[in-house]
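S., here's the first fold you wanted:
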Amino acid sequence: MKRKTWLLGGLGTAVALALLGWAFAPRPVAVETAAVAQGRFETAIEEDARTRVRDRYVVGAPLAGVLQRIALREGDAVEPGQALALLTPLPPALQDERTLREQQARLGAAQAARERAAARLARAQVGLQQARAEAGRSEELIRQGFVSLSKLDNDRLAVEAARRDVDAAEQDRRVALHDEEQARAALAAVRGGGGEAGRGVVLRAPVAARVLRVNQPSEATVAAGAPLLELGDTARLEVVAELLTTDALQAAPGSRVLVERWGGAGVLEGRVRLVEPGAFTKVSALGVEEQRVRVLIDLTGDPARWSALGDGYRVGVRIVTQSVEGAVQVPVGAVFPVEDEGVLAVYRVEGERARLQPVEVAARNGAQAWIKSGLQPGQEVVVYPSAALKDGARVQRRKVS
């Protein structure tokens, strides 16, 4: 009887000790994990931007007079030479010596502008020929294996930029010819010539474009130089982003741009054409003065995709500043600094245990960290590790809904 009592007491003690050991044993830490991936890693500058027509033409009154009612409205298409408005001169104010000399000077300035535009067109055509010759040499050197493909890509971009410079110079030449014609008509009206000049000055469209804004739709007396209409080709749009000067240093011309939040399906492609050399001060919504600079972006690809965009539309841009293929990546929430060691690390999951793994981080973006050394693709790491997690601790993977 006594022996049986001892056996039961020992058994009860063992059970109690086992229960106490189980109760105070460390529990596995619930963690969220992610796999180490390998692929393209990109860093980008994100900013709000707006669209604008690349070439805007303001049709102004060449002389003071009575403007007849303008029948055109915003969105109307016009052709080169199409009549836009009729301006009837004011005889009492125009038949004086000073006005005559002013119109003669205006004609001389218009002729000089036409010659300058012709010179710019010739210079742009020479630049296009040089860019095409350079691209041809690069293609030949590519076949011989002396230059890289990136050099050929840059030369092709230079050819495209030179072609656009020629187009812009041709448009400037047409505008200069148009201004000279208007100056001649205004001078004829001042001198009291007959024909159309005696009846008034007809303002004509300098290029094929669409009406962006009608500044004076009703009949009125206008002063010389008053803006009457704004014209622009909405098929030639560019995107303007105002970046902090520290960010603009990374947005080099030729950088790839993704245009998002533009209102249509998918993402539009673009390239940085120019970072303006002059910055300006802008006050943020928080009242902080910031130095910003305008970055001009050309839309690439099929223009039919973004044909619905117009002048002054708001969009979002992501300017890619770094792109690396085959980079080993983990979520940024997996990387943390190790106290007193001055290094970065992650918790790597081996079986049911977490192992502290120092890593070398090459770069980060908003979602991923590029791991230069310390991890291999396919391994598993802990995302957002808690303070309770230690090296060698048991872990239990948490299901993410």
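And the second, which I think is the more interesting of the pair:
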Amino acid sequence: MAFRTERDSLGTKRVPSGAYYGIQTFRAVENFPISGLRLQPEMIRAFAFIKKAAACAHAAAGRLPARHARAIMRACDELLAGKFADQFVIDVYQAGAGTSFHMNANEVIANRANELLGARKGTYRHVRPNDHVNMAQSTNDTFPTAIRLACLMAHPPLEQAMRRLTRALRGRARAFDRVVKAGRTHLQDAVPVRLGREFGAYALAMEKARKAIAASTEPLHELNLGGTAVGSGMNAYPGYRRRAIRALSQWMRLRLRPAQDMQERTQSMADFGRLSGSLRACALELIRIANDLRLMASGPNTGFGEIDLPVVQPGSSIMPGKVNPVMPEMVDMVGFQVLGHDATVAYAVQAGQLELNVMMPVIAYNLLQAMHLLARAAHVFAVKCVQGIAANRQRCDWLAHRSLALVTALNPHIGYLNAAKVAKESLRTGQSPLELVIAHGLMPPAAARRLLDPHALSRTIA
């Protein structure tokens, strides 16, 4: 491999000659061979937008030669088009605050800008990473701004997937509206419910989770870009922040605004904690719903057997014909992983000290990973599982008529103790509560049939 020699404040180092990154990136690659994980593409795109907006603002203010600004902006446009993604080589677990990743972006953009201006990579003859690409900026204002922008970019696919899952659940709710099944509390017989209403409740839970996530993204529109190192704006100039954020808003089609207090926005990562919390709540609801489906689909002969999930693959390497609830199982595993991501974000959010929280890279990675996982899992769950669920109507009806909790309806007519005796005898003999009430003459047959009809009992009382 051919190399070039670059210099920084610590000395010189040989860098692969074909690399668009430079010496500071290469030092970080050597220092942090930790996980092989990289920050997500949204972070590259976010930094490309930030650096482009900064160059545009500097050119408008006469702080950066127009020729240099155009080259920087063109290099950023190429990043936004997906080029040079392989040049972002910094591990997730890196120098605090994300300085290594930030310099990776500065060096890639600077080297590509120099190429566009006719200079070789690594010479920095026209455009320098720190002096030009990073003009009026710090890691401490650009990195949290990038996390905010990256999460806003990751949100629409999650929003779309959540809407699709909600629609699928509502579709099943309509299809199962007339299906009555045994309710269960404490995993014991409870009064009858409509299978459709059960799925309608799931749909509402997902809708509430979606809205909570959307609400938690709203504060992300407030940026500390222009605050530089500690929120004071040192090395920036009047008008820069306004111009840069206006350009970002226009290009990203977002209603971005400067932070109310730059110092608070630089110190606090609480907005990311709130977003992570909404993702955690969504994961918890998904786990609960997936587990309900696993229970209702259990069997086929020895479980509840109330619903049939779409068959997507064989379930066992040894038991022929076995089919497992693989989609709900996948959702559970994704949910557990999201809970882990949230725990990491929580620890990182509280780890800020004085003017800065240096744990931003791990916050960025875990937030974006959780959003990606939930988006993909919700989409696949909707398409490959929920919308194809079928009700086992005969099984539901049989269990509903034999639920011991039907005797609850007898309380106002024969009293709690007598109703309990009917329940115990039903459990002992296998006869249904209706059969026993009629056999013992506790109520006229027609009245008993009306009173203990699961369909009537499953109606919601206004």
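Why I say that: The longest strand covers residues 188-194. Residues 139-175 form the longest helix (37 residues).

Talk tomorrow,
H.
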